[in-house]
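Hi R.,

Here are the chain sequences for the assembly we discussed:
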Amino acid sequence: MRNTWAICKREFKAFFLTPIGYVVTGLVAVISGLAFSLQFLEYVRISQDPTANAFSSVPDFEEWLLSPFLLFCGTLIMFLSPLITMRLFAEERHRGTIELLLTHPLRDREIIFGKYAAALGMVLVLLLIVLVDLGIVFYFAEVEVAVLVFGLCTVFLMGAAFISMGLFISALTRNQITSGSLTFGASLLLFIVGTLGEDLPETNPAPGDWPQMLRTAAGFLHGVLRRLLLEVRLDAHARDMAQGILQPQDVAYYLLFCAFFLFLTFRALESRHWRS
Amino acid sequence: MIEVRQLSKYFGDLAAIEDVTFSVPAGQIVGFLGPNGAGKSTTMRILTGFSTATRGTATVAGHEVHTEPLEVKRRVGYLPERVPLYEEMVVSGFLRYVAEVKGVARAERRGEVERVVERCGLQEMHHRLIGHLSKGYRQRVGLAQALVGSPPVLILDEPTVGLDPRQIVEIRQLIKGLGGEHTVLLSTHILPEVAMVCGRVVIIDRGHIVAEDSLANLAGRTLEEVFMAALTRERAAAS
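And here is the predicted structure of the full complex:
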């Protein structure tokens, strides 16, 4: 535990000893601040005259502004997470410091959890920045706390998922650019794959003149694939949670996602023993 | 203190080292000598638990490197050949981090860092960024991190390479002073260095141990003669 903490501290400080920490926090501050202001102004405009904008009454603040904004922040973190994770292992390999790291009396789990915790710390810092935007609104208006808390948890879980994937990819490479681009590509793929699922027809696409057994099999496979594509989408599980509706399968999705990639990271680090 | 038995490491079909056997007695400084690419770094990397041997065993301070890597790592200070360091950290911050992961108790960390800083002559560089240091000072920081926690065994991979003559003399003096208290295995391809610093020598060529003896037993022959004779004998036998 003490060693995990030591690694975590060093990694976290490294973000701010190099420009990368300032770049990420700065981008989040500017982009989330701008997005929030624009959305907020739009909300104010609609609220002043709801009927002219096809609303029967003033639209719900949480539903129309807070949740979409938090989801937007989750997406923003997705775009920036490669910057956070790309250096975690790739830089150690590139500089050769991995030789120190792996010959100091540390267990693999202390190294991996330490680095993961440091990257999660960065996500928390980004959430704090987002909270500044929201804090201004709370000062003037009453907001449902549940929506806010679950919304922030959602963004954090999304971040944790992207980070775990980035950590794994970083453990595979020695070049930060490769690590970052692969992480970015994989996150984007996970995002658009859900759209593909939505485009697939709900009914069995197999032609009617196929034998019954083949039709059933094709229909089954198609169904599984469609469900899988819809479920694997990273933001699909965030929507309800960002509205303050907590469902176990959504939380489980993110936790399993993280566990899966952390497991792969362990295997990737371990591979040094059998790869020559 | 270090017992290596029939250690082999293959990269694909290429044998980096083959059936390497030697031992290092406690408290001695042993020179690990060989031409470039002979397998010195490969052997040292296995001894420090960084890489894994294909065959054979190696015991450091009573613990087998493959079955008890953590116990071995607790007892070994290692200076890798390229001296990799976290360049964005300051010297004292880096050494404090090393003390922490090496398990030095919180109350003793400051004293321990001061001790190695003084020993390696880094007092004036204490608050400098590692990335701004010259090659010689980087080497000292590498050595200092190996010394943190006073491990009984030190494995130093080419500790004097790339230094200016004055720095070489200083680092050699420093290493010489480590004998007795520490068991040191030091690799180099500079022959006079071994004669000056080490009490014993192990010569490796193309992955095989070709000679192992104490310097006193060389009986009048210079190290150079012994080295060249061992190399020719081995190469004649191989062809």
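Chain B has eight helices and ten strands. The longest helix of chain B spans residues 223-238.

Let me know if anything looks off.

Best,
T.
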